[in-house]
Design goal:
alpha/beta, Rossmann fold, two-stranded antiparallel sheet, 9 strands, single chain, 22% strand
């Protein structure tokens, strides 16, 4: 993978950003992924639906959520799991996630502070999740995190990775007022990194949802700023996103092979990509 500029500084900036994000009370509610909540909710529901479908092959799996943030996925997957342990670097987000667990009275969810590349001694897991985490770390940390994730899985356990990936060349976005330092690697870069991790075998690589999310493109590129918060526009967008959700899998099956060409044609910079791997028996 292409080396990032100044990895040590990037790690500190990343830690500082997420600590401040947690102290602000926002957690992961507003990130670089989108400016408006509808698209963020759409991403979350798409991800939970994807994971729930694949968790159905396990009987009450034990889950490790690395870089769990404020507990978004840990809380959502708790009803389908025997135990969920979330690991998060930022102390303020750990506190926020623990408060959410307590408020939901989830006895099978525990949040600990730690790094994605230095898993705590928590035993083995059926599922390990790295969702939206590897965008924010340097190449060495990607390699270490994947190695730790593989080591934490039981034989035939599942590793789930989701990142916002570049549709062309790798590019780095430095830290800004409302964004952490972020590396947009290509989907094939993550596929290569997973394939190079001992013990892991890739079983699926795809878009999380159809990357031409039309209501989001309309919102950003066609809708004038004064109209974005209008009630009628909001209701229309809600209905449109519901339609997108109902048809997303169908469109992926039908047009999946065309999407790389389409996103390049409209110069769409990034799309959400998923890699799923299993731990081979020793």
């Amino acid at each position: 993978m292409t080396s990032l500029p100044d990895p040590t500084q990037q790690r500190q900036q990343n830690r500082d950003f997420w600590e401040q994000r947690g102290r602000s009370g926002q957690g992961h509610s507003v990130t670089m992924m989108a400016e408006h909540q509808r698209f963020l909710d759409y991403i979350h529901r798409s991800e939970v639906r994807f994971l729930e479908h694949r968790l159905a092959s396990f009987r009450k799996p034990r889950i490790l959520d690395l870089g769990c943030g404020s507990g978004r996925l840990a809380l959502a997957l708790a009803p389908q799991s025997s135990e969920v342990i979330g690991i998060e670097l930022a102390e303020s987000l750990v506190a926020q996630a623990r408060a959410a667990v307590e408020a939901e009275r989830l006895g099978n969810v525990r949040i600990e502070q730690g790094s994605v590349e230095a898993c705590l001694n928590e035993g083995k897991f059926d599922v390990v999740i790295l969702s939206g985490v590897l965008n924010h770390v340097d190449d060495e940390t990607v390699t270490n995190a994947l190695r730790e994730a593989a080591g934490a899985l039981v034989p035939k356990g599942m590793l789930y990775i989701r990142n916002n990936c570049s549709n062309s060349d790798i590019f780095f976005r430095p830290m800004g007022m409302n964004q952490p330092p972020c590396t947009f690697r290509r989907g094939e870069d993550y596929r290569t990194a997973v394939a190079a991790t001992p013990g892991l075998e890739i079983i699926e690589e795809r878009y999380l949802f159809a990357p031409l999310c039309i209501p989001n493109l309309v919102y950003y590129y066609l809708l004038p700023q004064p109209l974005r918060d209008h009630a009628l526009v909001g209701r229309a967008l809600d209905a449109w996103f519901r339609y997108e959700e109902r048809t997303s899998e169908r469109r992926l099956r039908r047009f999946g092979r065309l999407y790389p060409s389409l996103v390049r044609a409209i110069r769409k910079p990034t799309s959400f990509r998923v890699v799923v791997a299993v731990r081979n028996p020793p």
